Structures are given as C-alpha cells and as structure tokens.
Amino acid sequence: MKCSTRSLLLIAASVFALGLSACSADDPSTGKDDSCVVNSDCADDEICGSDGNCVVVSDEACSADSDCTDIPEPQCNGDDLVTYGGVCDGDDAQTCTYPEVNTETCEAGCTDGACNPDPCENVTCDEPPAAQCSGNGELVEYEATGTCGAGECSYDRVSPAQQCVHGCQDGACLTGPCDAEACDTPPAPECDGNTGIVYADTGTCNEEDGSATCSYDITYNNCDYVGGTCDESTGTCTDTVTETGGAMIVEIMANAAGSYESGDEWFEVVNDSGSAIDLSGWTIRSGTSTGTVEEHALTSAPAFAADARLVFASSADPADDGTVTPDYVYAGITLNNNSDYIELLDSNGAIVDRVFWEAGTTLDGKSRKLDPNATDNDDFADWCPELDSTYGDDGEFGTPGAANPPCAADACADVTCQKPDDFCNADGNAVQYTLDTADCQVSRFNNPYCDFMPQEVDCTDAEYCLTGVCEAVTGTLPSPGDIIFTEFMGNPSAISDSDGEYLELYNTTDQELTLFTLVIKDNETGNSQDSFVVENPTATIPANGYVVFAADTDSSLNGGIQNAYLLDDSPLKNSPGSAGLVISLELQDGTVIDEAYYGEPTAGASQQLSIDAYTGGATNVAQSNDSDANFCDATSADSAYTSGDFGSPGVANVSCAPIQ
C-alpha cells in the first residue's frame, strides 16, 4: 500500500488508534534514523515528526510525557551515540512517541549503544625508546615524557641531536681523549723577559692527532708598565715604581713622520696638583728595561702654574714650520718607536709620573694621547692615537699645547683598507699578504689596523728576498779573489757626482759570474757607512771582463758609460780622510770577495789600478789593490768615455809602473 502525503495525519491517527502499520508490511525500511521529509523516509515503526526527524511511534495511550516509559535503548550511528526520550503526542488520541533527544560523538568510537572507553585513560607515557645511532654519526635520543594517542605512546626526538665526534655505537657516543681530561693542571707561572705569564687554573681540552691537549687562558703582567721586575716564581711584578703624582704626562709624539724624526719628538705634561709647581732640579728620564737609560736635568725650568700644560720637545721647531713653540727643549733623550718610557723626577729624585709604551703602540706620524675622561695614565687602554687634529709642515696628528680631544668612538670610522705591497723583512725573508681585501679592526692599543693576513716565507740560502719575493740566485757566485775593484771615479769634475761617480769591477776567472745579492760597502761605521746590495737578478760579469756600477745609468748623463749597473748608495766620498777608506765586495753571509784601498780622489780623474797588477801573469792579484801603491790617476779618457773627465770605465786600465 502506498501512503499519500495528503492523508498523512489521518493515517497516522488511525495507526496509533488501531496499533497497525499504516503502510504495507513489505514497505522496505530506509535504514535512516535521522532526518526525513515523509514517513516513507523512516523505518516501519517510525514516522516523520514535525521537526523533520524520524520518531518511534507506539500504541501506548498517554496523557503526559511521563506516561511514555518504553524508551528505546541508546543506539550507535557510526561514532555517534544516539539516545531517545518519550513524548506524549497527538491532537485527540494521544500516544507515545520516542524521538532522538541527544547525539554525542564518541572520541573512541561507539559500540553496542555505548561510547567506547578512552584507550589513553590511566596510560602514563614515561618509558621512551632507548637511544639509537643514526647513519650520520648522530646519537638519537627521545624526550623523557611522551604523548598517548589511540592507546599508544609516542615520543619526540631530542633536538638538536648530539653529534658523536668519535663515532656512535650501541646507542652511545664513543668517548674521546678529552672526555677523561679535566685540564686542571696549568703550567707554572713564568717570565718572558720582563713580562709575567700566569695561566688560568682551569683550561680547555683540545684534541690533536688523537691526543688530549689542554690550553689555558693567559694573563700577561708587563712589569715595564709599573717599572717593576717580573718574579719567575709567580709571574707577578715586584719592586714596582711608586709615583708621587701632581704632574701627569698626557700626550706623547714618539713616532714622528718626516725625515728628521728624532728632532720632531715631544711630550706634553699637565699640572694636576692644584697649585703651581717649581720644576727646578727636575729630571726627564727615558729608556727600556734592557736598554741604556737616558736622563736630562732641566735647566732654566719653565713656570708651571696649576692646571697648566707644558710641551717638552727635542727641538725648538718640532712642527718643522714654526707653528709649535715648545715650553722646554731637552737634549740627550730619544723616544723609541717600539718600546720606551718617560719618567719625571722631582728635585729629590722621587718619580712624579711614569708612562711606558710597548711595541705596537705607536703609529707613524700620530701622537699617543690620554683620554680626557681618564683619571690616571697607567692603563694603556686609556690611551689612543690622535686621528683628527693635524699640525706642522708634515701634517702630523696631535694637539701639542692644547687639551686632548676624547678618544674616537670608532677608530676605524675614516679608515679605508688598502692592501700594502709585499716586502722583505730584516731577516731576509719575504712577507706576503694573503688577502686582497680586509676590514678595519681596532687593536688593544685602540689603534686602527687592516689585517691582510701577512705570511712570512723563508728564503733559502739559494734565494734572496727582492720586493717580497724569494728570488733564486742563479749562476755562479764568486769566491774570494774572483772579482776585484779596478777603478774608482769619486770626484768627477765635468759632470756632477750624482751623475758621474762610478766604480769598476774585473772578473779574474775564465767563467761568467753572477753579481746578484753581492754587497758593496765602505768601512765607515754608523750613519756614515754606505752600503748597498746588487738587487738586479740578471747582473753578471763576463769571464776576464769588466762591469761598471754608476751613480746614474743613463749614458746621456753619466759620460757615455754603457750598460752600467746602478751604484745605489755610493761609498765614493770626496774627502775620505788621510788614511783613505776600504771599499769591500762581500757575499750575503759576510764572506769578503775583495777589499780595495780608496784614497782622496783628484777632481776629474779616476783612481785606476795598474793593469800590470792584475793581468799578464800578475801574482797576488787579490791583494794588488789593498793599498795606494798600485793605483794612479787617469791622465786620459777612453774614447767611449765622453764626460770630459779622465777615466776608462769598462775597459782596460793604463799601467802605473812600477808595480808593487
């Protein structure tokens, strides 16, 4: 039987009254327990209620909801738990219906009309998996507390994973040499010169070639700063200087620029005693812990009012242009660029003030100043270079006679790093810069610097450092007597000394010899000595032949001398003294190849060694030029020598008979 929508209410009422099905028994159930539009959308024992949901019908007569007690058991609809309630419904003959009254989603699912219990209830996740080794040498460990889900515990990995330096095995990192090293046995204190070295009690372990090596932080106690002596047993300073105070050194120009550096040195002192100071009998003292101490007793001492500042200088014109007038000019004291100190002693010999500086402190052409905010001048960290204010003809930096500006907040602010040229150091090795660019940095002395990573390259005995490169010395170097001096033009007349001076060498052997790296010098001492190295890698002297070293290699200026090598620092003096000089030719190791006598020259004529003394079967050739006996003045000029003076540069000499 088919139920029409129009007769829905009448049929429903009849069904309720008779307790019969309103539709045919073979009307299939939709299997739906929720929404509906018509009764056919619901099961056989349900009708479509007014709220659009299927409700269970009953033949129970009722007058109130409480009469409806035949409530269906809760049912599962997927993971939802559906419960029902009794409702007394109908217009005339009221009967009980049992609609859905609640739908609950079960977190763990629904079974047999009930929500399944929570599988994580009473589950404690506190047993993480054991640590494991990964394939890349990491130790994988898990957090101690995990999270329960669906009755199962999961644990997060500890992050980051531990990298096993020595490998991982059986869930553990293998131990290394440092694991059992406490690094609590530092070296004993020591002294390096006058600087104490004290090691920290606890160090840091480092692995080197499979062994444990401990390194310890070091405290350096430079005892020169306090005028003391380093104690070998403790690395500390003893017998330190006591300063009475009252006058304080606040600025020092120890590394002046220009050609007359020592004459441009100065330092500045401030009277911070609160009253005038009588400097009569005071002494300036300077020196190093290992060098000679220099002292200067003040004469005609200047007045020194309270809060005044005085400039003490090594000359009356330290600026080289008259713009700086010192208050006092001292003598006999040189301020070293590397390491030095200045002390001011009063008339009783007590040290009023002392300032020390070490190597690396001073910058060329820049004074060292005390920051005006500093309360004393004993800590080098309170000193800095003057980088802004200039004075004098050479554009040096400093403020002599004026208050010090504060130290720069950024010493690198106006510094542009430019890569320097490679060079040769005092040890004859090449110093080469490995970086093309660098950033400005500030040293512990507050000095700006650019680190292009210099690297020292050791030149072997078969090499010579030239402009920062170890050049191979090719060819055969001479042995003693192989090359001798045969002619000197020390006082040209027709042309200037700077163009016309020359000396001549002769090769007494039958093979070509190299001149590269040979040293030509005189026997004077100190600043009077002239010495230079032949730094031309191609310089050679032919077998049984001559070469000329000239002050000017331009043949149009030197009198027509062709193919001359440069006489870079001429030892040929116009007035060598009545005893004459000794001009020598040496190897780099000091081996003397030849020594020759050089007497006072005659203007316009060279001093020639008689050709009979070194050719034509002559004996004792190497000694033939040791005195003036075998020398004579040239009385004519070789045809190629066109200076207007007399000489034979590069060709055979004349005979100066008799030969001795």
Automatic annotation (TrEMBL):
This is Lamin tail domain-containing protein. Residues 1-25 form the signal peptide. Pfam families: LTD. Keywords: Signal. Residues 471-602 form the LTD domain. InterPro entries: Lamin_tail_dom, Lamin_tail_dom_sf.
